[in-house]
Amino acid sequence: MNEWAYTAAFFIFAAVTVASAVGVVTKNDLVHSSLLLALCFVGVSGLYVLLQADFLAAVQLLVYNGAIAIVFVLGTMLTRRSIRHGTNHSEADAPSRLIGLISGLFVAVTLGVIATTPWNYSSAGAVQDTPAVLGRLILTDYMIAMEVAAVLLLAAMIGAIVLAKGVDEE
Amino acid sequence: MQEVTGLYVIAEMLRDILGHYLPAQYVDISMSLINIGVIFGIISMTAVVLVYGERKVSAFMQSRSGPNRVGPYGLLQTIADMFKLMSKEDIMPAGADKWMWILAPMILFIPAAAAYAVFPFDNQAVFADLNIGIFYFIAVSSQAVLPFLMAGWASNNKYALIGGMRTVAQMLSYEVPMVLSILGVVMMVGSMRMSDIVAAQQNVWFIVLQPIAFVVYVITATAEINRAPFDLVEGESEIVAGPFTEYTGMRFALFFLAEYANLFAVSAIATTLFLGGWHGPWLPGWVWFFLKVAGMVFLFMWFRWTFPRLRIDQLMALGWKVLLPLALVNVVITGVGMYIYQLLS
């Protein structure tokens, strides 16, 4: 019973993720694409929940879906409303075919690697209290990685502030 | 073993009764369904009660009598309003983006309802006692931004779109100090699980130990649920009604259902984090919980009817230049205080 529900949930979340990801690429409207991307992230966070990574799922919702609102705003502000139903063209010309071919190859190679890798299955159970373990790891073993990411984000933030303030004409 | 009281006893009784008729696994499933049903009941009841309460409180603040014609003390006014909204014509604007316009109010209700899963109504009466409890609440309630933006954009109306843009600016910038103010409490408890947070307040409520965090939380929560003095999203004197401008009838009512569900939700979180949750003498836990939530709701209504609305630039300045540094200072003070406390004890 439990196993059955788990499998059903997995396929529902996977279907939502893949279907909305396809929609992101094929929709003609930039706003629709960004909203479908939000749905895709919700599906991914559902998969994280099934993998018992609940902290990661919440982070996925908070950070990625929070950013979707920004994508949405930029999408509306940087495109003209009169042509809103053509803001995300997928043209049938050479560059997009080439990109399609490359992505198709990437998917094929990834699937091949997944199919041929001999996987090691860990018998250890999932960690119950993830936030505490994550916090300890981030502040000990992965301290440098976290600091690098923090400095990078700080630099990006300062850059954004400088750009938004504009140039002093004097 | 802790003595169990209140709602948990009722749940155990129900479980016993069901156990006579159903196999064990179906008892669990039906108990979850009952819990979900009760939570939805609470949400719809709060909307009905809070709309009436809001009108009575506003009348009290303005020396009027408020609704007093439909039923005793006007108690049935909200029911009458509901029938009025249901019977109204459903008008869709001509240039609207049909599916987005229809979906927006429905999607808005999902995060509002999902947040209720982690509220500890009483001792052991919490639907899902997640180990990331309060973080789950933050993540889920932050999803309320997108439906507002969807509604604003799909309505094909400039006031609605401006309202949607304001939602993004306001809700995203007030989320940061809100999370940092909650962090102070989480640091002291050392856990994000709601039941642990309540258990840590058995002797001292966190409003005593974290007064700055409480003030920052209350201000940012008012902004998060778009209530006056931060109701720029729907500021009627500037942009008609913001994202709700083009909605009528039940669709309009859904926005209000979500707003009052959110009002109850932030009050419940304030109760859990700062006012000791269901802890209290003499009365059963859930009575204390609802009394404290009612107190918080009254505080939010008091704000709404006594403060004038801010301007959008004042709002952003308050959020980034006052509340965010204050919340950061609170985190530092909490950290230093905990270190000193550990040295002394």
TrEMBL record, chain A:
Keyword annotations from UniProtKB, A to Z: Membrane, Transmembrane, Transmembrane helix
Claim: Transmembrane is one of the keywords in the record: yes
InterPro entries: NADH_UbQ/plastoQ_OxRdtase_su6, Nuo/plastoQ_OxRdtase_6_NuoJ
Pfam families: Oxidored_q3
Organism: bioreactor metagenome
MF terms in GO: NADH dehydrogenase (ubiquinone) activity
Protein's UniProt keywords contain Membrane: yes
Residues annotated as transmembrane: 6-26, 33-51, 57-78, 98-122, 142-164
Official protein name in the record: NADH-quinone oxidoreductase subunit J
TrEMBL record, chain B:
Main location: membrane
Gene Ontology molecular function: NADH dehydrogenase activity
Annotated Gene Ontology cellular component terms: membrane
PROSITE patterns per UniProt: COMPLEX1_ND1_1, COMPLEX1_ND1_2
Top-level EC class as recorded in UniProt: oxidoreductase
Transmembrane segments: 29-52, 99-119, 131-151, 172-192, 204-223, 260-279, 285-303, 315-341
Keywords: Membrane, Oxidoreductase, Transmembrane, Transmembrane helix
One record GO biological process: aerobic respiration
EC annotation from Swiss-Prot or TrEMBL: 1.6.5.11
Membrane-related topology note: Multi-pass membrane protein
Entry-linked PANTHER family: NADH DEHYDROGENASE SUBUNIT 1, NADH-UBIQUINONE OXIDOREDUCTASE CHAIN 1
Name by which UniProt lists this protein: NADH-quinone oxidoreductase subunit H
